[in-house]
Amino acid sequence: MTKDELRKQLRAARREHVAALPASMRTLVFMRPPAPLLKLVPDDAIIGLYRATATEAPAASYARYFLEQGHAIALPRFADRRGAMEFARFTDPFEESDLENGPFGIAQPSATAEPAAPDVLFVPLVGFTTNGARLGQGGGHYDRWLAANPGTTAIGLAWDTQLVDELPIEPHDVPLSAIVTPTRIYGPFA
Ligand SMILES: Nc1nc2c(c(=O)[nH]1)N(C=O)[C@@H](CNc1ccc(C(=O)N[C@@H](CCC(=O)O)C(=O)O)cc1)CN2
Ligand SMILES: Nc1ncnc2c1ncn2[C@@H]1O[C@H](COP(=O)(O)OP(=O)(O)OP(=O)(O)O)[C@@H](O)[C@H]1O
């Protein structure tokens, strides 16, 4: 199957999976990072997160958790749809008062928010494999950012239905260090 065919199938599976979850359940998963993964997070690490869409694994509790642990939080920001992805500080994960509408229909830090490059980056995904391969939205945003910032530890957050046996891998695809689902931790991979 091509990446586009896989995306179509996996997005549909993700939508159905989330629609079948009671709203109360959706808010109770991904409450905080599992202990084995915290070993990948240095005390002074800047934590990159994302502002989840309705069907992605929710990342809001992680933002609040890491903020309370004293970490700086950063979210993706785009000047416009064609621009490169950068990261900027997210200081209010409780009220989200410092976010504004972004070009992909995803809230993002305002243009005046201070740039900050994550050391540990939690990423959304469309599909993943047990050994850390990742299929994204197809924009190449994360792959390009990770190629330009090679020291970054990238960790996927996903629903279990996003697991696939195999993904077509291209040379630019950057593997994940670990993936967290509501039932499992895959990795950390050496
Ligand atoms: N929550 C979130 N934030 C993110 C990403 C993401 O995947 N999820 N990105 C990852 O790169 C970057 C934004 N880039 C994006 C590139 C393409 C599409 C996109 O094609 N979205 C589909 C909708 C897919 C669906 O929800 O079924 C679309 O607009 O048709 C979205 C974001 C950074 N921020
Ligand atoms: N490091 C890179 N340098 C230049 N182009 C890149 C790089 N990484 C990815 N691309 C380009 O981005 C496009 C999308 O790539 P791909 O289908 O692998 O995206 P994805 O992994 O699903 O998306 P994302 O990384 O945003 O989650 C492709 O045209 C690819 O050539």
TrEMBL record:
Family: Belongs to the 5-formyltetrahydrofolate cyclo-ligase family.
Cofactors that this protein relies on: Mg(2+)
Chain residues that bind substrate: 56
Protein name, UniProt field: 5-formyltetrahydrofolate cyclo-ligase
Lineage: Bacteria, Pseudomonadati, Pseudomonadota, Alphaproteobacteria, Sphingomonadales
SUPFAM superfamilies: NagB/RpiA/CoA transferase-like
Keywords for this protein: ATP-binding, Ligase, Magnesium, Metal-binding, Nucleotide-binding
Keyword Cell cycle (UniProt): no
Chemical reaction(s) catalysed: (6S)-5-formyl-5,6,7,8-tetrahydrofolate + ATP = (6R)-5,10-methenyltetrahydrofolate + ADP + phosphate
Residues reported in the UniProt entry to bind ATP: 3-7, 134-142
Taxonomic source organism: Erythrobacter aureus
Molecular function (Gene Ontology), one example: ATP binding
Domain of life according to the entry: Bacteria
Enzyme class: ligase
Single GO biological process annotation from the record: folic acid-containing compound biosynthetic process
EC number of this enzyme: 6.3.3.2
Annotated signal peptide: none
